[in-house]
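re: ur msg from earlier - yeah i can do the manganese (II) ion complex, just paste it... oh wait u already did. ok heres what im feeding in:
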Amino acid sequence: MNQFSALLRVPSGRFQIPLSPANMDGESVRPLYFSLVVPTYNEGQNIELLVESLSQLLERALSGNYELIVVDDDSPDLTWKVAQSLTARYPQVRVMRRQSEQGLSTAVIRGWQVARGEVLGAIDGDLQHPPEVLLPLLQAIEQGADLAVASRHVAGGGVSSWSAIRRFLSRGAQLLGLLVLPGVVGRVSDPMSGYFVVRRAAIAQQPLNPLGYKILIEVLGRGRINRVAEVGYIFQERQEGKSKVTWRQYVEYLHHLLRLRFDRGRLGQLKQQLRFPLGRFVRFGLVGFSGVLVDMAVLYLLSDPATLGWGLTRSKIVAAEIAILNNFLWNDLWTFGDIASGQRGVGKRIKRWLKFNLICLAGLCLNVVLLNFLFNVLGLNRYVANLIAIAAVTLWNFWLNLKMSWRVTQVK
Ligand code: GDD
Ligand code: MN
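and the outut:
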């Protein structure tokens, strides 16, 4: 009897799929034709039957040239464990257990990030998406489509038994999508579908920013999708477990639509062209502001006659140093937390702190030079001059730390 295979390592940081399959250390791996990701949360009662029917079907069609990647978000019913136990019987199955991230769309993309297939797919883990529809979907890719979607709203499509409310909400969501993002949502008849296959090349090396349930809209909105094919299917009744859809998914859906609209809009394109990481800059600014408060507090505690009454310069140097340390820690944990988490170890953190310190100290000198130039040469009011100097130095500190201390290459 084969051994269980080990759980997959969970990728971290940005949601971007490599152009050619690679393992977590970036080394290339033996490619396959098809990788199908099954996102699961509490599907312990469904996963075995699903794996069995998918394996039978794909073994016949692709004989070993495929893999099933189960991405489970640490389900309380231990779905990941059930799936892992299946790897002994089904060597094509690989399992990822996520413990620090949640959500259907991000689960699918994390699965695609470790996938070895030239063609990537997503299918629900509760048997509501009939496995046999995979064959016409794959055929459509063979015939040149970049994306093939299983749709409830084309010939041969439908839902077995959905309440009027759920039908209304699903169509309502589609309508909202057509209003906010017609150029994306309007490309397919069932943009809410969670069942589709896509060519890796059409979404690789493209920064993805998924949210909530609607992974297909993310693929359509950010991918290089020319030809789309659709295959009708009947959305089955759920036999075991229950849907995880709550009002929260609808709020996330709206947020997702607006984010895509912004990123695809002129401002978003400008942001992309400028590659100016607005979100990070705002966080950097807030941390900088907290540093000013720390600086002031320490300066008071050390130099004020009512406290220790130290000399101003000595107190200022200590205050500035403590403020820089404060800013470094908050930036390392928050502003650049996603990057720092990929550069683990005390040594690497100290190296980042040293660089941060040097850049900020150089910034301090630049601040004094600029303040004097604006006040003494241009005759500006001292406080206006100081504000301009602080703003300029904040930009200086931000950009240099972005490029040198945390070596950020991705706009966020
Ligand atoms: N990893 C992970 N993390 N999986 C999740 C999570 C999560 O946070 N939430 C749900 N899933 C898994 C479920 O376990 C299931 O396998 C699949 O995602 C779909 O979740 P359901 O909760 O069953 O969704 P639904 O049936 O109501 O809606 C589905 O079908 C609709 C019609 O195609 C989803 O695919 C919708 O996106 C789709 O619109
Ligand atoms: Mn379902």
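cool cool. Strands lie at 32-40, 66-72, 93-97, 117-122, 147-151, 158-159, 196-199, 228-232, 234-235. ping me if u need the other ligands too
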